[in-house]
Hints:
There is one protein chain. α5 packs parallel to α7. Mean pLDDT is 87; it is low at 1-19. It is built from 12 helices and 13 strands. By secondary structure, it is of the alpha/beta class. The strands form 3 sheets. It has a 6-stranded mixed sheet with strand order 5-6-7-3-8-9, with helices on both faces. Strands 11-12-10-13 form a 4-stranded antiparallel sheet, with helices on one face. It has a 3-stranded antiparallel sheet with strand order 2-1-4, covered by helices on one side. It starts with a helix and ends in a 7-residue tail after the last helix.
Amino acid sequence: MAYQSTLAVADLDVDVFTNQWPRFALSIQGLRKAFDDVVAVDNLDLKVRRGECFGLLGPNGAGKTTTIEICEGLTRADGGMVEILGLNWGENAAELRQSIGIQLQATQFPEKLTVEETIALFRSFFHQGVSMDDAIATVQLEEKRRSRVGGLSGGQKQRLAMACALVGDPQLLFLDEPTTGLDPQARRHLWDLLEKLRSVGRTIILTTHYMDEAERLCDRVAIMDHGRIIALGTPSDLIASVGGEHIVELVVSPDSPLHPDTLAGIPGIKCHRVSVNFHRISVSELHTTVPRIFQAIADQHLQLTEFRTHSATLEDVFVSLTGRNLRDE
């Protein structure tokens, strides 16, 4: 695509940033933010390398959006330091606005404007960037370019928001849950676009509720809870930290509870967590461990009411650290 080639040309400057720019696209130290008596961000430290796709994960209320909005210059911190591309909002606001792209969770565009009028408006905010035609082609809205925003579907509006975030040819792109509410096809299209942007060296900071999205797109992820980072690393390293390649989930009848000691000593079991009658078990060898779990349950004459397995995910990392699901409110 034309826009892809524009990115590649622009990235020639990025390729030499090792001599011109700080190593980190984003550096956060001691960041704090509270709303009344609710601490949204609690003394947070974080560094994002240039050229990586970095995921910020966590349940609603974990502090992800507040952290991102402070980085974007939309919310003022109570304390701490934020440095973006070697600059800060206090001294370099005008320069930063020309260097970053932002897609919010929800963007309200004037519904009477057409797609091309909206993108042209956003393009006018930047001293340099990509052409309107290239931006439209990148997000595949050519057939809708003269359609009014009010007539677009939810997925098309998300693609329009992405085009507006990209039109300034940003060095750093902030995406706050960009695929929420999209159908599977629209999500996959956006994933493909982000992978292309990452391949030409753009730095992307992504918040998401979707673990498969983070595992596919992100070079590293940080998991947040209660305003703090509780885990940081590559998706594969964090998943390996769960202690097993697979997760077994089972429920027994309340009339015949299963005590963890019943399964103790079964080869392949790495971790066993219990919540009421719900059991989550990390195992390394599914094909040999599961039959032994069934046999142990049968030997105790217990009634199994639910049983399922899945490969370990980032969701399981969060559960192992907190005992809660990432989507818990």
